[in-house]
Design brief:
Helix 4 crosses helix 5. The protein is mainly α and about 170 residues long. Helix content is about 80%, strand content about 0%. It has two domains: about 60 residues; about 100 residues. Keywords: Membrane, Transmembrane, Transmembrane helix. It comes from Drosophila erecta (Fruit fly). This is GG11710.
Length: about 170
């Protein structure tokens, strides 16, 4: 009888239907450790997210008084102003290079009296502007920037006209 029971137990243990129902301590421990590992990773990621969000919110409240809301047209105007400032910087560097070359030429008794060079130097020197006041509303800022730029260009053109007139008078003598 003992042999029959052990045979039936062996057959039952090897059947696929009952094998799936059989759960060992090893399987339970593996499942518990896997869940614990995923919970640990999830807790770490959630804590990291909460800490970064808290830091971000603190920065937003610190900078709350200094933040500026811009419309798309104001943003485009600021982009144009930045490109203008960048181009102006490049022109100033070119004018400084030209000024250095002129000083070297003057030391060698060679005067650069070209009309184009003189006009270029006068234009660069008169377009150097003072940084605009940015503590005003954006619409007023844009309006004042345009007015100042137009006035400066008009003044530069008058200076260039005088240079051309002087050059023509000197060439006729």
């Amino acid at each position: 009888m003992h042999q029959v029971l052990s045979y039936e137990t062996a057959v039952r243990a090897n059947s696929s239907r009952e094998f799936r129902e059989y759960v060992s301590k090893r399987t339970c421990a593996s499942l518990v450790l896997t869940i614990a590992f995923f919970m640990l990773i999830t807790g770490y990621l959630l804590g990291n997210f909460v800490a970064e969000r808290k830091y971000h919110i603190r920065q937003m409240t610190k900078d709350g008084g200094r933040s500026v809301k811009l419309s798309s047209t104001e943003y485009a105007s600021l982009q144009e102003l930045q490109s203008y400032q960048k181009a102006k910087g490049q022109l100033l560097l070119a004018a400084q290079e030209l000024d250095k070359l002129q000083q070297q030429d003057e030391s060698e008794r060679y005067l650069a009296t070209s009309l184009n060079t003189e006009i270029f130097n006068r234009y660069i020197s008169c377009t150097q502007d003072i940084p605009p006041n940015t503590n005003i509303a954006a619409s007023q800022f844009t309006e004042q920037l345009i007015d100042n730029t137009v006035a400066r260009q008009r003044h530069c053109l008058m200076i260039i006209q005088r240079v051309i007139d002087n050059h023509l008078v000197n060439s006729q003598l």
